Amino acid sequence: MNVTKDKISSVFFQYSIPSVLGMLAISSASIVDGFFIGNYVGDFGLAAINISFPIFSLLFGFALMLAIGSSVTTGKLIGEGDIKSASMIFSKTMICITLFSFLSCTVLFLNVETILHLFGADENLTKIAIEYLSIILIFIPFLMIGVVLDYFVRVDNRPNLAFVALLSSAIINVVLDWFMIVYLQKGIFGAALATGISQLTLLIILLPHFFSKKATLKFVKPIGSYIQIIKASYNGASEFVNEISIGITTLIFNYVMIKNFNIEGVAAFTVINYLLMIGIMISFGISDSLQPIISKNFGAKENKRIEEFLKLSFITASIVGFIMIVLILFIPDTLANIFLEDTNYKTKQIVLNFATFIWIAFIFNGINLVISAYFTAIHRPLHSMIIAVSRSFIFPIFFIFTLPFLFDLNGIFMAIPMAEFISFIIAVILFKKFSPEKIIYKL
């Protein structure tokens, strides 16, 4: 498949469908975790996962920064026909992610209790969260390496293999969740072990590709400076900033929810995050699939093709948003019941109050993600970062502290939709200023 010459719709769907299905596999695994923990461990289990989330944001964000930045650079080099330089960047990136993942997880593992107290967890919540994190941190390096491999496999024209790896990981996670939590009754410890083991699947499936005859990218002896990796990572910095911002925002939201609704508030926010995750991960799958496509067409200076790919992405992301809005407006009780037992009445009521406002976010978040991915693919990381930070940090924090003065507790529930709306305005302005035609014309 030649992404710079083949039929637009064919290329788009052959990249986006595996990417979306892969993201659905990832999100469904997390959602199944939430289902089993919510129904078999309880509110405190859901709260423990959410209080640990900023740690995942830091680690996953770094992996995304390396993966997206380096793979986009690699895609551009492949589009220009420079396979040797592309393989060099790939090899150096793998060395960087391997060293960082194991070192950072070791440091976090040794200081996990102190970190959880800084996050605002009390003694009971800290005890459950440590039980979860002490297992997860052992396996996270394999997930981080697997995420980077996933991006390079896709830029190496194997999007279906990337999907198979993500789907396999999700299926193993679901099966092990049931076995560990329900059958063996291992609680939060079992959930962590199931998730950790499933993360090894990515590595086992994806790594052999780069030793096969089908691979364009190969492991080569790293020669010269690693400055090029730092520069490439800068292009993916918006994703790192986005993940870190989400982690900080989650910390602040957890604080606000505990202050106003106790532990039930954190559990309810966790459920809302699961609902947001479904729609966002689909849209992220669409936008994510654009990066290898646009980066190669950018290298080939095909602005008309880039415009067509973006049109398809905007339409698809809007359809996803509409479906999520319908589900949240018409069956909020059913969605809440997936994660909560009937006895969790207080938590469920908070979820339903949240759902009254959160659906508005789905009008805008898909378009925001697509435009942000477009800027990353054309090597405009600052513009991508502006959108990412606006929707995940600056405006959510601003609105969660200001809207309650105007709308009481409802202001808390309105913060995320308002942040997406303002970010949408910023994204559209930036896109009009740096459209594909204008960018290619400058080149």
TrEMBL record:
One GO CC term, this protein: plasma membrane
Protein name (database record): Multidrug export protein MepA
- Keywords linked to the UniProt accession: Antibiotic resistance, Cell membrane, Membrane, Transmembrane, Transmembrane helix, Transport
Q: Which PANTHER family match?
A: MULTIDRUG EXPORT PROTEIN MEPA, SPORULATION PROTEIN YKVU
- A GO term for molecular function: xenobiotic transmembrane transporter activity
Organism lineage reads as: Bacteria, Pseudomonadati, Campylobacterota, Epsilonproteobacteria, Campylobacterales
The membrane topology term of the UniProt record is: Multi-pass membrane protein
Q: Where are the transmembrane segments?
A: 12-32, 44-68, 89-112, 132-153, 160-181, 187-211, 265-288, 309-331, 351-374, 386-406, 412-431
**Has UniProt tagged this entry with the keyword Transmembrane?**
yes
Q: Where in the cell is it found?
A: Cell membrane
* Recorded family membership: Belongs to the multi antimicrobial extrusion (MATE) (TC 2.A.66.1) family. MepA subfamily.
Q: State the source organism's domain of life.
A: Bacteria
Q: Name one GO biological process term.
A: response to antibiotic
